[in-house]
Fold these 4 entries.
Entry 1:
Amino acid sequence: MNFTDFNLNDNLNKALIDLEFVIPTPIQENAIPYILDNKDLIGIAQTGTGKTAAFSLPILNSFLSSETKTKEMYPRALILAPTRELCAQIGKNMNDYSKYTDIKTLVTYGGVSPEPQIEALKESQDILIATPGRLIDLVEQRNVFLDDVEFFVLDEADRIIQQGLQADLKKIMKKLPKTRHSLFFSATMNKEIKPIAAEILREPVIVEIESEEKDLKLIDQNVLFTLKENKIKTLINLLKLKEVKSAIIFTNLKQTTDDLIRSLHKNEIKAEALHSGKSNTHREKIIRHIEERSIKVVVATDLASRGLDFEHMTHVINYEIPRDFETYTHRVGRIGRASKKGTAFSICGLDERNFFKKIEENNKYPIRIVNHEFHSNMVKTNGGNKHLATHRKPVKKKGNRNYSNRKGK
């Protein structure tokens, strides 16, 4: 199937050609026809699977087919997302898809002055992309009205729940018209999300795409066991390997991110930090540099593990072990996308082995143990590429899951 099979507006197809969009992803192929048919929809799909296009293209196509004019401060489509980074990315994609049309899109989020956003709303914005908190501020101050919303999209719904934004969501729902098309996208569908989906949607079609875990087979997963005090040295040795062209390094805390940046700079390794404690201007600059491929190393919290694309990155490094398997898959899933292979390393201290064991037990693909003295044990594979020397321990079966029976675990 090709994008032309959707019979979208010619100006949308023209933009898709510029973007080299030819074959739709599974979420796009399965969701777009239902949305074009005005169905409410639940889309279960991980970030990076192309869901922004899945809901954006039908919305744009509907507006291009309509003679309705958007009024000042009355957007006709509302897209809610949990973070400003995700809002900005959705806005960029929407503008890319609509560049040959006169449809206007505005992105609003907190952390910056609302005045430019308020002024922009006076210019009849067709599509409003917002974080819940900033949207409520704009609504309560009567700078935007949601009475004319025809399409309501809730993106990354599971993260909105995780961030405790249910109350904000309920306030927004009360302002929306009862007659509308609602689209609900989430990486998971758990018991906390189901009642919210039931309240938002009417007889929805459910489209579920296999999770990122299925794509881990494209990623060479490795773990290095070391002492906590040796983590920095281990990381630096990794970053100096020739095959590490670019890397995103994940930490669990903002403070660790900043400390790690200082350590890397002392060792003459250029790196940039990305976390919620940085100013919006800084974060936008870093994301732009990532897109321009002018940054080799990024150190980030889980702010960057979902909603942002790092397709050109060759490596993911878990400097700190995530506390659950889902977070691990999101981090590692920044690479190995669009059928591209990648490499992931996890640097595991003694105090983190229980967390790593849980990841191993849930992972369907092997995680190779790398000798922590790897810097002096480089070996060549048949293909001539250098890889890290490894050692293997006995593996026992426990039910249908593999777990490593290693000392110290």
Entry 2:
Amino acid sequence: MRLEMRRTSSSCIIALIAVCCAAQADKDGASTATPRFDDVGAFSEGLAVVRVKKKFGYIDTSGRLVIPLRFADAAPFSEGLALVYTTLGMNLLGKTEGVWLFASAGYIDRTGKFAIEPRLIENAHKFSEGLAAFEPGASSWGTAKWGYLDKTGKWAIKPQFAKAGDFSEGLAPVAIIVDPKTKREKWGYINQTGKLQIPTQFDGVQGFRQGIAKVFFAEKNPKFEHMHRPHGQLWGCIDKAGQVVNCPDRRSP
């Protein structure tokens, strides 16, 4: 459930340079104190996540702290909004192998104001193509469903999926449970109305890029041709109609 501060080497170098440059004389000749951060993330839409101890905020490209260190966790900005946790809830049965309950999160704009007020949550994603995959929860760990929020915080697609991914090129990967005992999942793709565009029949999927997505199978499927077997895993490529096509890159994903 916890977010990870993702970095790219170039973005982090820029962020660290920006922090150092923030320690400069102001217009009156007075010096400003350099913020000391325990961690600095990559810039996204002109802002980067920073952490001091257990609090998160955001700096701009000059290294100035523009959104205060007041969040329990924070993610990079995407489409003008960023997912932030106001509380991480409580962990049961151990710090590493337990389950988190009663976490609360929402989405802020670039001023730090909540565009979508915090609510109880199990998991969530960034906004992509105007929608964000969101799994609400309280004490229902393991039984909540994923849906999609719009930028007003309303359900554009009501919670109904076991798992859900980001939209790309108008489609998003979603999974349903096909075997409750083993929790086995099957993946397919929905459109932005929530309609299943490509049936849930795959054991794993990736997002669409230039009209093509890679899909995976646990075992050979007679319905699909051109299956490859890197490291024992079957995979191939489909178009937006769900038809098998030649992969632009046949290397293992």
Entry 3:
Amino acid sequence: MSVHFDSGRWNKIKVDARSWWAGELDRPLLNYTLTGYASDRQAPSIRHERYASCYEPEISPDQIADQWDYNLSTQRYVGDAFPAIWPDFGPGVLAAFSGCELENGEKSVWFHAAAQKEIADIQVRFEEDSYWFRRVRDILAAAQQRFRGAVQVSMTDMGGTLDVAASFRGSEALLFDLYDHPAEVKRVTREVHKAWWQAFDALNAVLRPANPGFTSWAPIFAEESFYMLQCDFAYMIGPEMFDEFVKPELAASCRKLKHAFYHLDGIGQLPHLESILAIPELVGIQWIPGDGQKGPGEWADVYQRIRDAGKLVQVFGGPAVVDKLHKELGSLKGFVFIAEMQREHELTARENLRKHGAT
């Protein structure tokens, strides 16, 4: 293993994260990962794949874990960053754990049912013996065996409940079902919710207790249960339908987690923000402006709304974004910024860390 991180630094990550979650850290978390360093180990036998689902079945979980180890050996972690790997099988892979087919694309992974069914004929059940669940489970197990707690192995991207339902039904058909068959949509939502938590618990049984803590595709560290919940389907519906079809399940999942975040993706979800913020058990919001929109440093009003509601805030952005928002908002207490930078920018990163007390 060639990861440049030791137990002393892990202890600091845990102490600062514990304080941040409790609202006691007077500075933001600044998670800066530096990339592009020469590795001190031999290159792996397989090439890196953006999506772990793209590795052919004959490529073993141990080989994939070795490839991840090599990638980590080319990185350095400053501020509040920590070594983590994310087994990415596409957003909403729960669909593939429950009977949908998985299709790798050039820029994403897609899930669809083998045959189109009416909403009344759809039944969603978690299939522990499905190929894709076994594949994810075995890769996570190999990673844990490889890293033995020195690296945070993240949960895969399970997806949002209605996003998974849309994989079975189709997004357009599901939109019509909200009007025509609301009771059936709610039934399927309950089935997806149950399957989601069965899969989540089964994978966490593999991840724990070797993992230092919990994280998701957004590398925020937590010692107790954490997940980045989502419903990208909500972009296409209004606030009344959100409150009827999305919010009850979202609130139920928030109650099951110690640290529940919501992935607010795109301006089409902003009409739902106040409703989401009203969920008592929701701890924080990740705001993603979306393609073609202003950058992450241009939304001080949105961040202020989130903070005024007593929630934490996650932003993808480095030193320039941090400095801009600090100037506009003053204190950045309760924020976590996540950025990946080339090693040539290490001095800039470290200066920014010192400026905001993250050293």
Entry 4:
Amino acid sequence: MERNFDRTIPKICAFGVELNQVWTNLIMNAVDAMKEGGELELRTSQDALDVVVEVRDNGSGIPTEVLSRIFDPFFTTKGVGEGTGLGLDTAMRVIKKHRGEIDVRSEPGETVFRISLPKVKKAVSSL
């Protein structure tokens, strides 16, 4: 695991426990995608408006034909009994609640989830 953290990122208004759930889901999915081991990178950065978190792995990738459905509730690419299909749905809802965005790009050998959270204090809505 490689960590590349921008130590100058400002604090943001957020629900830390909920964001921890997002990071946990993304990291666990990345580990699952790297069945034989691999490289996991966690990166933080910032731009003028947002704090950015990226979770990158060099696993099998997400098949193109299902990429548009990965945030749907109960959708999973895992076998029966291995996943509930709620991890990425939950991640999306938490990020939206924080007025942020979550994007993914994937191909065999590289999947990157990019989360942007606003620096500016905006009202955080309830689910």
